[in-house]
Structure formats: C-alpha cells, structure tokens
C-alpha cells in the first residue's frame, strides 16, 4: 500500500542555515523538494565527478570478477585522491590499449591475406619505370585477363590467392599503362606488412598485461573508492538541498519544503522543537506531486522489484503489488509447471539463501524460492515430473491420481481461461475502488458496470454448460446451478452493467450525450476484453510446450542409452543438456509472459497509470 505523507514547510533565518541543514541530513526522514541546477554549477560538477568514480568502481569490480580468486580487502592508508589518480591513469591506459588491440587485430586479419610483403620494395619499382597494381575479379574475368596479358609483352599477370568466388592478382608493367578491363576491381594493399603489425600488437599486449598487473595490485583497496563515492554522494545531497532553499522577497527569511511519512510526524516535531525551527505541517493537496513510499507485508514486498520494472504508482493510486503478487506467483508456476524442475529450483534457492549474505540480493532469493515452490506445486497438479507423467511413475495410485487436479489438457486449458476471467473482473473491481477515491462514487460506476457485465456473462455461460461442467476439481457448473434462476440473474447483471457503462462513461459530459459516447466504450470493451482473457491461454501453451520438450528429452535419452559406461554417460549428457535448455527457456518465458499479463491485461483493466516519484529522504547514505 502507499503510505500517507505529510507536507513540511520549514522557515529559518540565514544565521545557522548550513548547520540546520546538516542536522536535517543527520535526522534523515525528510524528502526535500529539490530544484533543478544549472549544468555549470558546483553540484553538477560534483555529480559528474561521482559518475566518473562509479565508472572506476565498476571497472575494478569487473576486473576482480575476471580473476580466478577474488582479491581480499585491505584499508588504504595513503591519500585516497592519489589512489583515484592512479586508478584513473591505469584505467585510461587499459581502455586505450584495448581499443588499439582491437584495431590492430582487424588490421592483422586484413594484412595476413596478402602475406608478409615489403612495401618499400614495391615502391622501389618506380625507380625502374614500373608500376604494380593489385586487382580482384570473379574467376572467369580473371582468366580472361590472364589470357589477354599473356600476349602482352609489356605487362605480366601474377596470381596471388582466391577468396570464395573472387581471384586476387597483381599486374606489373610500365608506368602509365591503361586499365585491364572495366569489370576488374582495383584493390589497395595494406599500409604495413604482417610482421610490422604483429610486432606492434605484441608491444600493445605487453603494455596491456603490465597495466592489468598494476591495477590488480590496487584491487584490495577498491572499497576505499566506494567509501569516497558515498562521501561525495552525501556532499552532493547536502549541496542540492542547500541550493533548494528559497528566500523571501525581503531576503531575511528562508524556507524549505519537503515530505515525511505521516507516521513520523511526532518524531519530526520533537526534532524541530529541539532545533527551535518554525515549521508548518499540512496534508497534500490534490494537484501536488507527492513522493511515494510503499508499505507491504513480507510476501508482497518481494514483488516490489517487479512493480519497479514498470513504474511506481502515483500517490493517489492503489498500490497494485498486493493484488498482482498472488497472480504472478500462479502464472509463473503454470508457465514452467514441472515438479522435478521446481524441486531443483527450490534446492538452488535454499543454497543461495545459505551462501549469499549480501542484503540487497536476499529478497530476490526469497522471491525465487516462492516462484520455485509455485513451479513445483503446479507441476504436481498438472502431472509433470521431468517430462514424465506423475501418475505413470506412481502406477496410477488412486490418491496421487485424485491429487493431480489438472492433469489432462482440457482441464489445464480451462484453468488458464478461468484465471483470466478472475483477474480481469478483479481488476475492474479494484478500478472501481480506486476511482471512488479519486472521482467519487460516480467515477466507480463505469468499472462496476464492466465487472457486472463480465460476471453476468460468466453466470449465463455456466448455466448453459450445465451442472456437470467443472474445471478439474472445481465444480463451477454446480455452483451456477445453485443460484436461483441463474440465467435470469446472469442476463440481469449484464443489463445493469450495460446501463452503468452507457450512463457513467464520460462524467464531464451531459448525461443525455453519454449513451452515444458509451457505444464507443462498448465497442472498445468488446474488442479488448475477450482478447485479454484469451491471452491467458499462453499459460496453458507454455506449460504444455515445456512438458512436451521434457518428454522429448527423456525419449531421446532412452534412444541413445546403451550398455556399459558409455551408454549411460550418453544418456546422462542428453538428459542434462535437454533438461537444462528446457528449464532455461521455461524460466525466461515464465518471467516475460507473467510480466506481460500483469503489465498489459491486468494494468489496462485496472486503469493503472503509474509515474510515482520514489520517497528518497535527505540522509547520510552508508
């Protein structure tokens, strides 16, 4: 959920301004409204310096990752500025040598085709009144040229080499001779021979290796660079906030505006009273851009990185994270849906949680555990274990057969469609709640109408399908039959929803114009919502394709299985490669397509706009 915020306006005199801002930074809960700074200001130069140091830091991290064993960490006793200058210099040398090496390798590849010639000797032909030109042409044209020059006593044809369908050759003759033929292309010899280019490349390689050795000596001090970046970021934050202080027209009073979580109001007032500062606390106005701070439970918080891929909600929107998190978990599990793969992913996740201690990565590992559990659960429900049928492995044990709820293709497909209906209807209900908050009760009527129409269609369809209709163990037909006069109820909800759609679609228009505009709304609804719901079939299709690939892998492994160690090894190799590729494709597809169902089908039905600004308190970063 989006945490309520309170607007803060601080008033203070010029005397003691800098000290007060420093205390505010140490207090660390106020999100200050910062003004934009010009490119030639001190803050901009400081930001550029930080960017440069971050590039140095990334360079050191990349180099450390290339080494067989990560280097240790040591405190740097000298001047950090001297360390930064050395890193900058070596990084410049290494990057320049890498660029030059790439150029020399391209030049060497072009030179090697011509051999190790002496350019000076070719230029020396001029002293004898001769010239040499190099040409290329398709083989038939080259043969014709050679025949023509055979009878020419002044010029000679010298074949060099063939490259595919073209032949390269040299023509030597007196200076000023004419071209041989219009279809013969003239080639340019390299400026330097192979031996010269190789020698230059060897020199650059030595310099590059030497620079890398020197940078490796500095890797243990890379965290000193990180500490310097943190210091500069805190300094930048202070300077930006100081530049954001406004003065009154008389110039004898300054003020600063910002935002704090409403729950922190009492603590802030205690701090400001101790500082003897004058302040104003007020609720945000409708047209103000308020920073967003999310407050979710342990499970929901794991999905906030997925929310951030699209955008934070605006301050007055519902936070969609608690509402899409369960669906995303289900969707991911259905896309892979294999008990064996799920157990492997759970094992890998548990090892990761035990080994990785970095705080920023642990939430992602916990999210991985949740998604892995979903893969295992839905793999069991859909009767898949490394491409094999669970019921076949268990010899159709009655308890297992009953637990495999969606083992047949028909049930799996209907489950995907059912989830589509549930999430789309749920999205319109949430949209109604959200628009009640922003537009009042009238704003909720249109999404309520759409939700009633969809529910009415579902009830009428289930009534038509009969009492026996079910999706796996879910007796939807019996539930619909339990509704008195189900068909009339379905049509009634559809009619009421249609009326709400036609009358409350454009609240700024006159009510007698809205039904005409509502026809267009109805057309858009009929052309988008069915497509949205059918889009959920991708869950079934991806799960089915993964199961088929897994089954194919097992069959191929059985085909290559032979007697002895070689046969068993061949089977294991096929199983490992096939299962690895299948799992990698499945995980990528599950991530992407679950995102798509969330960001397109769910968000569009929800009416989610996003664009929120993250709550970023003015504080010392560590």
Query: Could you estimate the helical fraction of the residues in percent?
Result: 55-70%
State the major sheet. 5 strands, antiparallel
Strand content: 5-15%
Indicate the mean pLDDT.
Answer: 84
Q: Which segments are poorly predicted (pLDDT under 50) over 5 or more consecutive residues?
A: none
Spatial shape: extended
* Structural classification: alpha+beta
Note the gap between the termini: 27 Å
Continuous helix count: 22
Number of strand segments? 9
Any idea what the radius of gyration is?
36 Å
Describe the structure.
Helices cover 62% and strands 9% of the residues. Helix 11 (321-336) packs antiparallel against helix 22 and helix 16 runs parallel beside helix 22. Among the domains are: 118-188, Alpha-Beta Plaits (2-Layer Sandwich), CATH 3.30.70; 298-606, no CATH class. Strands 1, 2, 7, 8 and 9 form a 5-stranded antiparallel β-sheet that branches. It is of the alpha+beta class and 622 residues long. The radius of gyration is 36 Å and the shape is extended. A hairpin with a 6-residue loop joins strand 7 (246-247) and strand 8 (254-261). The protein has helices spanning 17-27, 42-66, 80-112, 119-123, 139-150, 194-218, 222-243, 265-274, 298-301, 304-310, 321-336, 339-355, 362-381, 390-393, 398-403, 409-439, 441-465, 476-481, 486-503, 514-535, 537-560, 564-606, and strands at 5-12, 31-32, 130-138, 156-163, 166-174, 185-187, 246-247, 254-261, 278-282.
């Amino acid at each position: 959920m989006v945490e309520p915020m309170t607007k803060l306006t601080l008033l203070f005199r010029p005397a003691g301004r800098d000290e007060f801002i420093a205390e505010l930074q140490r207090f660390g809960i106020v999100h200050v409204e910062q003004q934009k700074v010009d490119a030639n200001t001190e803050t901009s130069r400081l930001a550029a310096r930080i960017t440069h140091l971050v590039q140095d830091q990334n360079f050191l991290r990349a180099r450390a990752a290339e080494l067989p064993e990560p280097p240790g960490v040591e405190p740097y006793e000298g001047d950090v500025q001297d360390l930064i200058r050395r890193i900058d210099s070596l990084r410049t040398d290494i990057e320049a040598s890498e660029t030059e090496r790439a150029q020399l390798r391209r030049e060497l590849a072009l030179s090697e085709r011509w051999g190790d010639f002496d350019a000076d000797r070719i230029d020396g032909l001029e002293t004898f009144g001769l010239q040499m030109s190099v040409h290329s042409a398709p083989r038939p044209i080259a043969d014709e040229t050679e025949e023509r020059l055979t009878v020419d006593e002044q010029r000679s044809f010298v074949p060099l080499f063939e490259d595919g369908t073209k032949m390269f050759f040299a023509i030597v003759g007196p200076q000023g001779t004419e071209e041989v033929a219009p279809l013969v292309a003239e080639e340019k010899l390299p400026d330097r021979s192979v031996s010269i280019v190789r020698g230059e490349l060897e020199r650059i390689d030595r310099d590059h290796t030497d620079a890398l050795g020197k940078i490796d000596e500095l890797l243990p001090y890379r965290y000193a660079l990180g500490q310097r970046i943190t210091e500069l970021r805190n300094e930048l934050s202070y300077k930006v906030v100081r530049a954001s202080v406004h003065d009154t027209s008389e110039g004898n009073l300054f003020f600063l505006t910002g935002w704090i979580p409403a729950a922190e109001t009492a603590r802030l007032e205690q701090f400001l009273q101790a500082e003897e500062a004058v302040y104003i606390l007020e609720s945000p106005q409708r047209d103000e851009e308020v920073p967003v701070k999310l407050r979710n439970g342990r499970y929901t918080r794991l999905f906030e990185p997925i929310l951030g891929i699209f955008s934070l909600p605006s301050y007055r929107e519902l936070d969609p994270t608690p509402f899409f998190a369960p669906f995303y978990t289900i969707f991911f599990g259905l896309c892979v849906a294999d008990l064996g793969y799920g157990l492997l992913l759970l094992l890998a996740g548990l090892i990761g949680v035990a080994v990785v201690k970095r705080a920023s990565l642990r939430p992602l590992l916990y999210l991985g555990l949740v998604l892995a559990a979903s893969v295992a659960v839905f793999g069991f429900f859909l009767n898949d274990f490394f491409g094999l049928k669970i019921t076949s492995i268990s010899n159709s044990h009655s308890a297992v057969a009953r637990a495999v709820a969606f083992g047949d293709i028909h049930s799996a497909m209907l489950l995907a469609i059912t989830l589509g209906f549930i999430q789309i209807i749920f999205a319109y209900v949430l949209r109604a709640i959200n628009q009640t908050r922003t537009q009042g009760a009238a704003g909720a009527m249109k999404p309520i109408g759409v939700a009633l129409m969809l529910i009415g269609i579902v009830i009428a369809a289930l009534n038509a399908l009969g009492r026996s209709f079910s999706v796996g163990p879910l007796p939807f037909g019996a539930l619909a039959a339990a509704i008195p006069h189900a068909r009339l109820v379905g049509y009634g909800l559809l009619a009421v929803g249609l009326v709400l759609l036609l009358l409350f679609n454009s609240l700024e228009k006159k009510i007698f114009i809205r039904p005409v505009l509502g026809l267009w709304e109805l057309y858009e609804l009929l052309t988008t919502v069915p497509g949205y719901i059918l889009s959920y079939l991708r869950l079934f299709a991806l799960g089915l394709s993964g199961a088929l690939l897994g089954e194919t892998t097992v069959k191929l492994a059985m085909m290559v299985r032979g007697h002895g160690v070689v046969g068993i090894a061949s089977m294991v190799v096929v199983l490992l490669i096939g299962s690895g590729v299948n799992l990698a494709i499945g995980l990528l597809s599950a991530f992407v397509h679950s995102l798509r169902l969330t960001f397109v089908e769910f968000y569009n039905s929800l009416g989610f706009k996003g664009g929120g600004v993250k709550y970023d308190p003015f504080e010392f970063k560590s």
